[in-house]
Write a sequence for this structure.
């Protein structure tokens, strides 16, 4: 193998980790309120709960596992992606993370693979190459099969 | 809302037009002034909404009517732009600051699409996902929780296409009756939403003149006076499970909270409504809003759709002008098209789509999922 591995960079910094080890799943970057305990994705400086509004928030990581709350399959290319896998469309899910937040992100697989309540694992998905970089987005892949 | 009336309304038909914003806006505005029996000289202030036009477009477009020195204020709140501008104008009249205010909305969504097609990178993570996906996720959840079928969504869409056929200002005016089967067979956008269950891209303009209610009678003696009896605008309240990232986000609860506010202000309830306009950018939205606005009890939307409750001639007709799905949704003018339709209906001037004896109408818009604006109009 003479191919040089490209450096993976996030489509937007500050939302998820890009582990050195390609086999290690990414985690989402969130915040937790030190006063009321509410957890958020993405990171924020002020607690959003009207009863709290504390400025005492700490950085936390979320996932990498989650549970599927709802899903769809979009029959259009993923915007900003030149990955052939995305040309015929892509799954989208709302995923409940064990720490509390619900997130909306792409899903790996076909609509028939998804079901509400399904266990999922985060992974990095290549959108396009830019020089020596590979631009990646975080998505979730089912780790539980139907039936 | 104290003694505020819609004095006049006008539209430039929504569609894909090779016509500048200034021309569409001028024609809609002049139509509204003629309808109000007023001259631009009488307009004391203007609230102008657009989403996709460059900085200062409102002030530039307003020069089309004449340079009278009047104050012009830009308003932007995504899809709810026109509705938010309308609210600001009504509040100004209610406060006593002005007697006659123009509310103007225009947009060329087709230009925006050309611009974004030229850019290949998603600057924000949320840009990667199609907005339709968010509402498709509502649909999947509804199927899971309430046993909704794609046919229910198709029936809503078919109703709106058929209502559009009766509206000369609608972008989609099909010559043949639209069937549930045809909607289901159209191209899949985001499962289970097909292209005919989604609003089109478009251009257009719409205008409303609002003013002191006593002026309405003087200007157009003998014509029913349409009053704005309640207005509310809310943004999101945090609750567990809140989504922050996505092209469109926002909790359904916002429509419940905002509607409670207008019902209380108007001293009316959902049972008093004769017709309703909603933000039906996607058919599943309209289905959810039936319940969120209290037009039926939670869990009963499917049954009510099957019984034709929301069709013209039904218990409470919804999206009588075709809604966003058929009348169209250029952006800035969309909320004002709802005011146009409701005003004509309450005056008894809605032609083939007239709701018999309509006295009370509600207009509901969402902006980016994160803003909800609701107005109640009532014939005096």
């Amino acid at each position: 193998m003479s191919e040089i591995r490209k450096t993976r960079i996030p489509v937007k910094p500050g939302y998820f980790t890009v582990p050195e080890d390609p086999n290690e799943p990414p985690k989402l970057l969130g915040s937790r309120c030190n006063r009321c305990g509410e957890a958020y994705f993405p990171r924020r400086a002020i607690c959003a709960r009207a009863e709290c509004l504390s400025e005492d928030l700490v950085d936390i990581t979320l996932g990498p596992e989650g549970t599927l709350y709802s899903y769809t399959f979009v029959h259009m290319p993923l915007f900003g992606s030149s990955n052939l896998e995305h040309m015929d469309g892509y799954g989208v899910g709302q995923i409940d993370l064990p720490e509390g937040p619900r997130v909306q992100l792409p899903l790996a697989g076909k609509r028939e693979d998804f079901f509400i309540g399904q266990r999922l694992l985060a992974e990095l998905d290549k959108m396009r190459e830019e020089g020596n970089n590979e631009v990646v987005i975080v998505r979730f892949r089912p780790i539980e099969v139907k039936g | 809302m104290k003694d505020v009336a819609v004095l006049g309304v006008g539209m430039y038909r929504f569609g894909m037009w090779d016509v500048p914003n200034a021309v569409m806006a001028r024609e809609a505005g002049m139509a509204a002034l003629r309808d109000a029996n007023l001259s631009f000289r009488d307009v004391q202030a203007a609230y102008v909404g657009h989403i996709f036009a460059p900085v200062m477009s409102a002030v530039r477009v307003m020069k089309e009517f004449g340079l009278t020195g009047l104050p012009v204020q830009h308003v932007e709140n995504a899809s709810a732009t026109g509705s938010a501008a309308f609210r600001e104008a009504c509040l100004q009249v209610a406060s006593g600051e002005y007697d006659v205010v123009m509310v103007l909305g225009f947009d060329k969504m087709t230009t925006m699409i050309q611009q974004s097609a030229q850019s290949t990178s998603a600057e924000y993570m949320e840009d990667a996902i199609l907005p339709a996906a968010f509402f498709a996720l509502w649909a999947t959840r509804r199927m899971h929780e309430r046993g909704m079928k794609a046919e229910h969504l198709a029936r809503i869409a078919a109703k709106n296409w058929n209502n559009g056929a009766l509206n000369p200002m609608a972008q989609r005016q099909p010559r043949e009756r639209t069937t549930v089967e045809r909607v289901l067979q159209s191209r899949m956008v985001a499962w289970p939403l097909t292209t005919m269950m989604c609003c089109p891209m478009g251009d257009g303009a719409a205008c409303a003149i609002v003013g002191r209610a006593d002026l309405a009678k003087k200007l157009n003696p003998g014509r029913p006076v349409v009053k704005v009896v309640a207005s509310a605008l809310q943004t999101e309240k945090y609750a567990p499970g809140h989504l922050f990232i996505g092209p469109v986000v926002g909790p359904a609860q916002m429509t419940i909270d905002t509607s409670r506010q207008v019902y209380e202000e108007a001293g009316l309830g959902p049972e008093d409504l004769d017709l309703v306009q909603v933000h039906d950018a996607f058919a599943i939205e309209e289905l959810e809003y039936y319940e969120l606005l209290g037009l039926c009890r939670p869990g009963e939307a499917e049954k009510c759709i099957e019984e034709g409750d929301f069709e013209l001639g039904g218990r409470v007709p919804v999206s009588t002008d075709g809604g966003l799905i058929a009348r169209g949704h250029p952006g800035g003018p969309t909320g004002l098209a709802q005011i146009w339709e409701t005003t004509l209906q309450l005056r008894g001037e809605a032609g083939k789509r007239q709701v018999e004896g309509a006295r009370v109408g509600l207009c509901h818009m969402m902006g980016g999922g994160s803003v909800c604006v609701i107005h109640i109009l009532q014939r005096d």
